[in-house]
Specification:
Helix content: over 70%
Radius of gyration: 23 Å
Structural class: mainly alpha
Order of helices and strands: HHHHHHHHHHHHHHHHHHH
Shape: globular
Number of strands: 0
Length: about 475
Amino acid sequence: MLFNTVQFGIFLAVVLLLYYNLPHRLQNYMLLVASAFFYACWDYRFLSLILISTVVDYVVGNLLHRADDPRRRKLILVWSIVFNLGFLGFFKYYGFFAESLQVLLGALGLHASLGTLHVVLPVGISFYTFQSMSYTLDIYRKELEPAKHYLDFALCVAFFPHMVAGPIQRAQSLIEQVTHPRKITLDGITEGIYLILWGLFKKMFVADNMALITNRIFAQQHFNFGDVFIGTLAFAFQVYGDFSGYSDIARGVSRLMGFNLMVNFNLPYFATNPQDYWRRWHISLSTWLRDYLYRSLGGNRKGEARTHINLMITMVLGGLWHGAAWTFILWGAYHGALLCLHRLCQRNLPEVMPRTPFQRFAWRWFRTACMFSFTLYGYLIFRAQNFHQLTTMTAALFSVHVSAPALKSLFVIAFHCAFLLAVQLWQLQKSNLYAIRECPVLVQTGFYLCCFYLIVVFGAFNAQSFIYFQF
């Protein structure tokens, strides 16, 4: 059941009608049933995976809370991590690693048949696995008390707005919202409507129209500079509009019910360096990796060389989180290298900082353009179907040919992204993602009418799935 369908609109209307007329505890039970139904619309068979995962982590959380011996607590935690990552690895990565190992053995003159799995990847397994793991990790660190009731914890993991594609909500913030009555306010409802409309605009008007260009160009066999640049640029706005649109809708739906989910995107294409980019892009994943992986490896506490190694490990595993393909691993390594390079250069940056307002303005936008260029090449790695296509398209970047269809596609991109960029420039200037809601009523009305008009007249209504569902 996709957010951008009539079926979801009917589902949400029924859920809200019941929600607004039930007391707190019954609201929770109803939301748990609704979340199970929402996920079952994808594939009811995999509801058992969520059930098993939540039962195991709920039991582990209580065992960790009662255990005093450090060694026993560590063994319990390790068992939980192995179980969760084992589930994730079995369904998502077994075929990839089995095939890669067979290729390696074949290159060495050895032949082995490891078998492959032919199962549907459970929707959202990477998201709800990380959400569930954060619960036991926080209890192990004594930063969280275990949930008193299993159903409360189950709702935190399975809450339908964020279950299949995030944001990866921390148990610390969500359990409190589940266990205490939520307040329904007019401001919360209007904020929710704003987020839902803005999310639908990003998805249906921007992302799905960019997908037509991206899919056409990446399906080609031969490329020139214009093809590669336009295809990658279109994909940049496709993946941003698609994923940030989903996050906005998830947050908006949650606000209608009094829940607050974390901001997952904060104008990432205006980042000025790699570190700034990861503070703005997929914030729920980047902070999860920082808190539970990077810092567990030692972070930046063990010298410069070890810091760079920890960054590379974190980003490579972050790339692998996105999917079972070597291109995702390379994409993670690429961003890890950018972060390491930025750390090496950072100590010299204060020496070249400009002094006048114009120089600071020009320097800021020069850094933004450079970072966006690096980000674009990262998207080429991310979107490429295999290494052969990646090398072919990379080589095409050194050509000078730009075809007429590529130029036409550039105008299409400009048309579909102009309003998005105009709004985001205003948000950047005000340092406020809700800057539109603070404008005069006439300006707000114009914003809503523009979004509605562009969606209805130029939006894609063929209900394309969200990209991050496959992760």
